[in-house]
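Margin note from the TA: students keep mixing up input and output lines. Inputs are the sequences; the output is the structure of the whole complex. Example:
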Amino acid sequence: MDSAYDVAAIGNAIVDILARVEEPLLAELGVEKGIMTLVDAERSDAIYSRLPPAVEVSGGSAANTAAGIASLGGKVGFIGKVKNDQLGAVFRHDLTSLGVHFPTAAAVEAAPTARCMIMVTPDAQRTMQTYLGACVELTPADVDEALISGAQVTYLEGYLWDRPEAKEAFLKAAALAHKAGRKVALSLSDPFCVERHRDSFMTLLADHVDLVFANEAELTALYRTDLDQALSAVRAHVELAAVTRGEHGSTVVTKGGTVTVPAEPVQRLVDTTGAGDLYAAGFLYAYTHGRDAALCARTGGICAAEVISHMGPRPETNLARLVESTLSAV
Amino acid sequence: MDSAYDVAAIGNAIVDILARVEEPLLAELGVEKGIMTLVDAERSDAIYSRLPPAVEVSGGSAANTAAGIASLGGKVGFIGKVKNDQLGAVFRHDLTSLGVHFPTAAAVEAAPTARCMIMVTPDAQRTMQTYLGACVELTPADVDEALISGAQVTYLEGYLWDRPEAKEAFLKAAALAHKAGRKVALSLSDPFCVERHRDSFMTLLADHVDLVFANEAELTALYRTDLDQALSAVRAHVELAAVTRGEHGSTVVTKGGTVTVPAEPVQRLVDTTGAGDLYAAGFLYAYTHGRDAALCARTGGICAAEVISHMGPRPETNLARLVESTLSAV
């Protein structure tokens, strides 16, 4: 079927504030290591005031995936809400300068553009504190019908499930996609996000989702069992599940079988922020270009390896060239 | 003499927008490579729209120097104008979280916080386009008398000379410093800045400045002659001149003589942004701690080597530890 876009991504539009911190600061701040926590404006300010000098980079899980797909040469659109403020302009610039179609109007009367404080510890783990700001203004009206029905895959981040209006937007997008004969993909986002929404995620997978992206912790949190049993369980729910497993690579489960692809070598692990997002970018780019599961997983792994070798959640290399040279190397 | 601060720095309060670009883009944009150009809001937007995804980091020449001095463990204050907007908050956070005293109130009714688009080419050279925004609100009233008279050295960036009110603030600070028996230091900032203000810089050096920081291009632009003659000329004007010469290290000229210190080795040259600012940081920290000219220059060189080994104009390493370990290595 003809399609104007490979992927339409929907998610929170966030600017990341990245800081390198030492382990003890996490305890002092009382934040849970390795996961994403939602905070209000006051708590966000309190944490920020304790951070060392930082760097601002556009982020947001599905937006990172969209940026990755664009860097791979894919046709991609993004739906998400910023405010018409400085960080909103930064977010829009960083996405559209890659060629990502971004039709969502900025909010005028709203909280500021969302920020996520990402504390990167010396072990390259990231701990995230998100102030959603203007993201809470995302509603079903923002779901661009032309984009969704013109995209082979509509990709949704699980984080959207934290808010009722975003949830409605999410379901509207899924319905539009399926009506147009397209696929719906979901990222489970975070084990705590899964815990918060376990039952509705189960229903979602069974009723609305074709492709699911998760890491090991998220998938086992969803099914409250070990990895093997979770892989069997998810096979009954969706057409395809791509499960990332850190240094063990990734496993793709379909009705037809299971394929595991080893992790790509990483010269120096610097910051794991964006690993899952860029895996999804590589996977979806290959998927929408007709590749088999193994090659989709391999492409995802190459993109993930790039993003964890430097600070920040978006590629610093032209991914199209990187994937081509990696795949053609003997 | 007792002093509350080692250094009081005064300069433009700027957030940098750093992007890696290929050489041809500079020509397409019609920007002059390697120098700083002032642009208005419209031109700034036009250039920004042509840049690839970027990273936002606090910058500003004298502010970078202040950050460096704080990282070295020095007591330092900064005077400069942001607006009370998102980038202004980022600028303030990044400076104060290092322990820099920053008494200047944010402007409420003003253009947005200043931004400098820094295009870094593959040869690690940086080309800067600055939109001064709220910086134009800096006036003599912002010169904090307690800070200036309590600091051993008041350090001024030459870029301030581009605006009449900032110039007045500059002269007020110099007068306050001298009245308190302190030293006044000036950075010449940029060869084109020197060209714009050549005559008044000459007067300034002769009448108000004790220590001058410049690179080779700036010093020879000032005296319109070769390096040797420029070094002789500047000796007659100031007590001390520290002249950076890239891979040739730096030369310090005083009434008592001339000392040249070789450049510190750099593993990988990534981005020269902040090289001069961090040289001044190291130099001034050592100077205000009673070190001789050679050790001041060496300390400056170590700090400059750190900042050019990564993207961005501020140190990513604890400079106190870096300088200590470098100087104690055999």
